[in-house]
Write a structure and sequence with these properties.
This protein is mainly α. It has 46 helices and no strands.
Amino acid sequence: MVVKLLQLVETNLLGFANTLQNSNNSPPPSNFNPHSRHIKKTHPTCSTKLVSRGAARLPAILHALDTTPHLDDALQPWHHTLTSREITLILKQQLSPHRALQIFQWFNNNDSYHLNVIHYNIMFWVLGKARKWDLVQTLWSQMNANGIAPVNSTYGTLIDVYGKAGLREEALSWLQEMQNRGMQPDEATMGIVVQLHKRAREFQKAEDFFRNWSRGSQVLILRTKNHDSLKATQVEKVSHSNACLLLSSRTYNALIDTYGKAGQLRAASETFARMIKQGVALTTVTLNTMIHLYGNCGRLRQVCFLYKKMGELKCLPDTRTYNILMSLYVKQNDVNLAAKYLAKMKEACLEPDVVSYRTLLYAFSTRKMVDEAEELVREMDERGLEIDEFIQSALTRMYVESGLIKKSWLWLRRFHLAGNLSSDCYSANIDAYGEQGYTSEAEKVFLCCKEKKKLNVLAFNVMIKAYGIGNCYDKACQLFDCMEKFGVVADKCSYSSLIHILAGADKPHIAKPYLKKMQDAGFVSDCTLYCAVISSFVKLGKLDMAEELYKEMIGHAVQPDVIMYGVLINGFADAGSVKQAINYVDEMGKAGLPGNPAIYNSLIKLYTKVGYLKEAQETYKLLQTSDEGPSVFSSNCMIDLYTEQLMVEQAEEIFESLKMNGVANEFSYAMMLCLYKKIGKLGKAIQIATQMRKLGLLTDVLSYNNVLGLYSMDRRVRDAIETFKEMIKSSIQPDDFTFRALAHILLNCGVSKQVVGRLEVMVKRDASSVLQAWMLALSSVLEGDFWLSSGAGCLPCYNTSYMAEAMVEASQSCYLELLLVILSTRVIATFERATAFPNHGYISWRQNYLLQADLTESWAELTTEVC
């Protein structure tokens, strides 16, 4: 619907442009009716242009009023000759509301002059703009006492000045006063009321007021056309489509802007299309408003169309047009195109204003486009344009985030020395340094702020935040403690920031006193900060301190929430304290707070730890019925619990569900491996281990130990060696359980307990340097297995070059012992395995054994020489 409407707008706009181009040479149509144009405004106009009569003497009058304090003396040369028009111009030209009131009262007290409603309107505007509400009321009473009746423009002026001052209710009371007198707003007053609602973001009220006003205006027009031929009751039933309600460009602009700010693209487009259809003159303001509206809705094609048509419609783009376009394309992240519109603005001989530069400077600064930003700053300096605080702080942040700290300081110093920075701007600069961890630079800016005596609570707050980011916790506390010395009172943000910093730094003992001060100051409205400190105590294992603070919180009538209970339940679950955890669960239920997945996960963790199967199953069902479903953590806990209870089917069901959802992790597989190992299903356990290795799910020493233990049970020497190599390659340090599994493999392969014991002793001496010993020992066993399984008649002689390379590396005494252990491992293992297979050839085996013995003796001599 909106797309069709936009197409209709484009069609009408093209037709309107063509009509406009031919209008200069076209005679008026035969059915042209000058009375069917716009509703005539009832506002008396007060032009500031000099009228022909008395035009020469008005500057002299104004000069006399400016230079002569006494009005009798100032106006004496023109006494009794000033016209009502001249009085209007004199009042409008006064810069001081006090002087304007003096002149007004002088004319009012002079019998030679009779002030009219226009003069009162001007004074309402002057005094209202100066917020002199008592004088406005006095003047209103004086006007009524003098018998001067207010007109539409009077009420429009009063509604306007009160509304712009933020006194919305008072402004609407003037509208009510107007209606009580039986007077309906004209188009101009209606527009003022619409603007009033728009400023308050009451878009629906603005639309309703306009529609109600339109119906009233419709009745008035039809009665005028038909005189008294129709009764009022009949006229009110006429549909809006039959009314000839023609509005001014200004009213249409206000309506389109109101719909646009309300996000009603369709209503705005319909109003724009009606404006074009009725032939109401489009202005640059109209097209700017529509460009802005379409741009905010992401309809860039319509933006380009309207921009191109501006010239044809004789509505040339102004500075605001280009500012809107630059802003729109910056939002679309097309900064280069936005910069091109700045160049087009200059080509059109339009001077960019501060908004133009600010838009691009902010875009350049957030994207760290330093060179482009500096070029714009040079232009602004050359043109003498003021660089406001927004630009200043944005560029400081740009320099800091770009790592140009020296440039950032020179930039800041320029404005500091000129004294052009406010407290808030100093705070923004402190924050720019603090957020990037430049604590010392943030301190320097804080001292500059102190030097200019502009410290406020915001400056302290951002500096405390900077200390927190820089891990300067003592300085943060000291700064907070000295706030009162500078006459600054800490606010809620001050306390909150410091407490969060200390709690996050595992310093709840220091945070607790500040929390008490905050409570005494009346800044604690909920349990958020209590939760932060209690959570910090729980993290440190100080559950007694956490409970103590919790009881203090309850004593202050601060009610806990689900997150607070979750922290306590999780803390006691980690500690295995079932009773305390369940107490908090019950307390949460009594408070009417529903459980959540985080709390259920904590309970399942607790039940798994203490072996409460039934309770864990009930809690897991609650997770299954929740929107999020059970997490991997809770599912793994259940697998672990079922593993302990040897409940295979239930564990497999959860495991398959995790695999189906693609979320099974290392712990899931490891638990299933342990389960199958426990019940003796080594085949399935081997399958799990193979899957873990293929999926890269061996990342923890515990998982490696489980797999190595499995291979040890099943005497899978080759798989064990490969897994051990993968473990070492992954830089995972073996532990006692790892070496225990490896020792079991060696023992199962026939290596004597004495040899394995010597390897274990060497681990205790230097675990990190004997990994090669274990690897060689396992490799020796593997080579023996390979040869015997091949069915050859004799055993191979070991690769002496390989042994020599190992010997070169073994320059330390522990390695000499290591090599002897490895050699004896090979010889003994070969002997024991050969006796188990006599058919492989005793003579061949004996020859190899003697060769190995000779080699052992040679190695012993070699090691003696090395030592």
